[in-house]
Amino acid sequence: MSEVEKILLVDDEPGIRESVQAYLSCNDDWDVKVASNAKEAWEKIQEDIPDLIISDIMMPEVDGLQFLAQLRQDSRYSNVPVVFLTAKGMTSDRIEGYTAGCDAYLPKPFDPDELEAIVANLLAKRRNSKENEGSSNVQLDELLRDVKDIKDRLEGSGKFTTVDSPIKIDLTPREQSVLDLVAQGLMNKEIAKTLDTSVRNVEKYVSRLFSKTGTNSRTELVRFALKQGLTE
User: Fold this and answer.
1) Rounded-to-integer distance, Cα 36 and Cα 60, Å
2) pTM
3) What is the pLDDT of residues 111-159, one digit of tens each?
4) Is the peptide bond before 109 cis (omega within 30 degrees of 0)?
5) Cα separation values, 80 from 2, 30, 217, 227, 229, Å
6) How many CB atoms lie within 10 A of CB 130?
7) From CA 112, how far away is CA 56, in angstroms rounded?
8) Cα(first)–Cα(last) distance of the chain, in Å?
9) What is residue 27's three-state secondary structure?
10) What is residue 55's three-state secondary structure?
11) Are 84 and 55 spatial neighbours (Cβ–Cβ below 8 Å)?
């Protein structure tokens, strides 16, 4: 049985809240809650973080754009997909919504089938993102365990001893920085952030390190680098 995904609908029009909640609730995999304004929505979010938010833009006191800005500024909710429902349909208004960080924009009156398709698509992307994040965390844990094991062996039994490499390996300063961070157990995204570069550039540097050291994986690279004294 699949896990029920939580949707929060924020709209000050009772008719919209009732009709959209009833329509989306036909999907047994979705639990649809409602809030009549941004303040009430914020309180609900702090009690239970939704998997997706559908919000009107034109609301009293705190409008949808202000509500979205509040979400994006909070690390707990910054990655929650947001769909805007609004009577405003001008191109400039849509640009304003996307610039603020919304994931989809649907002007009223809208086709409920289209809304359902948008919601399903965004939830699927969120699931995939979580799965990829979980996979990366597992890989990171495995790499950290391998690095610790290698270092323990180097410092302990002496089974592996640091030796002079028979072939001189010249690393550029950036390649050395990437190698040192790989040896610390950082993944490409974290390395890119640390070095203020792109993930793609980090991937290129790691690939060069594989080529220069004759290794095929991060664990082999770290083992080789530690044994050859290329990193600590």
Assistant:
1) 10
2) 0.57
3) 889 999 999 999 988 887 766 654 455 556 666 666 666 566 555 555 4
4) yes
5) 20, 15, 34, 44, 44
6) 12
7) 15
8) 47
9) coil
10) strand
11) yes
